[in-house]
Records
---
Amino acid sequence: MDSVGNIIIYFAVSIMMIIFSIMAVTAKKILRAATYLLFVLIGTAIFYFQMGYQFLGAVQIAVYAGGIMVLFVFAILLTNKPNEQDAEGKRYRRIWGLVVSVASLIILLFALFYMPLIHGFSLVECLSASNLITMHDIGVAFTGGEKFQYLLPFEAISVLLLACIIGGVTIARKD
């Protein structure tokens, strides 16, 4: 990513993703928010392609931009009429949402920096001691089945998404 063209594409896609992310969060209609999220996911795939990870870019488009967004839109249309006007959220709901969001962010950051990730070292320890972590170590951490590895949660989420799809199809066929 050293040519001027790649740098221009990077900044253009970054700005596009920031704008569509804000629009997805602030959209009043849920289908529009889902569409804006689709553009953010496609922007992520563009980054993968730019870095030379064609497989990850293809998976990003096929799984997230394709499958997950179809699932979201399907769930939205099953549970909500597209033209139905939602009542404005009350102020206390927004305040509680903000409080829960900030608390979740603090817990997430704490877990990110202090949970043992690779070889029993936390991110803070790895950064401060300048430990060398290879791509192989990161791959094993994400796809391994031992403690603090993520294969089991990944498979659980895939089974959950499959159950959601089957449930949605079942509900849709009952009409």
Note: The CA atoms of residues 1 and 51 lie 7 Å apart.
---
Amino acid sequence: MDARKYIRDWFNDFRDTATHEFRQIFSDSGVLLIFFVAGLVYPLLYNVVYRNGVLEDTPVAVVDMADCQQSRRFAREVDATRECRVAYRCTSMEEARKLMEDREVNGIILFPSDFGKKLMNMETATVSVYCDMSSFLYYKNALMGVNHVMLSEMGQIQVERYSAAGYTAQEASQLIKAVPYGENNPYNPAFAYNIFLLAAVLLIIVQQTMFYGMTLLSGTMREERRNYALGLDHGTMINGRGALRTVFGRGAAYWAIYLGIAFYITLIVPALFGMPQRGSFWDIVLLDLFFVTDCVFFCMSWSSLIRRRETVFVIFLFISPICVFLTGTSWPTTAFPAFWRWFSYLFPSTFGVKAYVNMNTAGGDLSTASSLFTCMTLQTIIYFVIASVATYIESIVLKKMDE
């Protein structure tokens, strides 16, 4: 075959496939809804919902069964923290439980009756904290407020005990804190929930909306017995060489659309809501190029398994929370069981989110995310091969069915 004719035919097929895919996308209202409404509105919606980021003065009830100097001081210091506000002082757990059931408080702090006695006898005293788990922020605030005061009280109690044993204040301080240390949280000093969560959610929106839109379109095509493996107009069957131009052509349509959406999500949305943007502009652009390319072939590979349009809505119910969890944002990946660690490698978001956090939130450069870029590159190659093989195999199956 003449090389120039082959190249010309290749690019013509590539162009026709990409153009046809654009037409399919813009003629399907469901796909348009997912791509341009969900893809553009969800980032704004998440930022609006979590815009404050920091919850202050969470109301708690104190049940002080000890009624001693130490418990009263502890309760006052909890009330003085940014996280908690002592809204009620109750005489029993039943009263405090009723307040929580009525949503008057979001936490309960219980001092047992032997709290002061144990401290006087130099024994270990306990403070119980009960949290409203309807929101992670209630749980975080109640625990953080009590823990801050507990650490301060532990130091005060130790000073009092050393002083009673005859040590000077300076000697007691050196014994308690032999190695001075300071708390430094440079990336999220206020423990803002939006900074913690949205860095992961933004890139997952790119991956998930592309996946749902592409699988929705693939399911529709297979229900109607239309497929790229038989050509754009049900003509000649694509051969092995044609499978590559089909994959590239289809991928180009999604790549062009989602590159713009990715720029909007990673560069414009954080600027609109004042989120940290410590990474280099061109580093984030490069990340978007790698991540969107990876997502295109990831979605194309898995969409080859979709046979019905409604299947995507079943997948929608459980896959997005799993993707958030597998990024390591809500739970450290070092604590993952081996199965979930290996399972997380199936998703581009596992590497893309970490790279985005490293560069945009922590202010790192490409070197801090080089291994993640390598993983996304390997993943892209693997999914490209899978998508090409799936297209080729489907062409053979459909040809035999038509014979």
Note: The chain has a mean pLDDT of 83.
---
Amino acid sequence: MTETRKTTIAVIGCGRISENAHFPALSQMDNVRIKYACDLILAKAEDKVARYGAEQAITDYQIALNDPEVEAVWVLTPNYAHYTVTMDALRAGKHVFCEKPITVNYALSCEMAEEAKKQGKLLNIGVCNRYHKTVEVLEEMNRNGEFGTIYHVYCSFRAHRSIPGLGGPFTIKEQAGGGVLIDWGIHFLDLILYILGGATLKTVTCDAYSEMAKNIKDYVYTGMWAEETMDLNGINDVEDFITGHIRTDKASISFNGAWAQNLNRGEMFIDFLGDKGGVRMNYGGDFTLYTVKAGQLTEITPKYDIPNMYACEDAAFLKAIYTGEHTKTHIDNILESAKLLDYLYRSAEEKKEIGF
């Protein structure tokens, strides 16, 4: 029996996304050897050694980059560190899987793409929804013309009061790059562009607001992602509400997003409106198709298994290391989404419509 070849990797950043997504997925794969778990807080790295089979806990990621056995690294750090760690890893000759967003702005994202090309290494970005079964099904249906012409897409990513880690890295623009748009919106807008299939961006207009926690110490919340990073004496200079309109050569796109709002109505959905059929996609779940068949209005909610999208994207990256394939989450396929975010933020700052 042929022994499975294991890819030796290092995971840099042992926080929530590593805990909730990548360590559980990677630890179940028989073609991976997790040699290093790295975090500035040693206890977090040691926890991953104890629970997920990583071999060594370290605080200095350069140890992993200097190890010739390490072929690839997972960069799961806060946004602001994506650029530095990824660039160092590429220059050290490693393939890199970097969580979304690519980094805090489009210009630095382009530098990362150029460095990957220069070094001849793969750089994939963790826009995991491209591997969600529902997104894959809808992309194929659109490609096959089942919706006719999609002329408009609307999405809503809104919660009641759930600003993450208020006062900490999530709400410091210099470190995060932005608020709800770069945190949640990137997932929605990227999967929309993916399903539309190569839409060319034309113009954007956007408004951003930071109203709900202007006084950090008075903010009352119903839930808080990354609460352990909250700093009541910290900074909050990112948007908690975003709204905008995007014109492309294929469809117009409008959206509303809120980390926090004075409405206890969470909404996480995307509507695709086509001249033959329309879809309400429940983010992270299934979808319902509305169309006409034999002269009758029909409403169909298909049933299918939804595999773990994180496991799917990690497995695709590992396979690409050997095939050289530029998968659907290769950085070259994600740069347009990063560019879109920059233009939306520019429009909000300049308070005008901006063309590409």
Note: The mean pLDDT is 96.
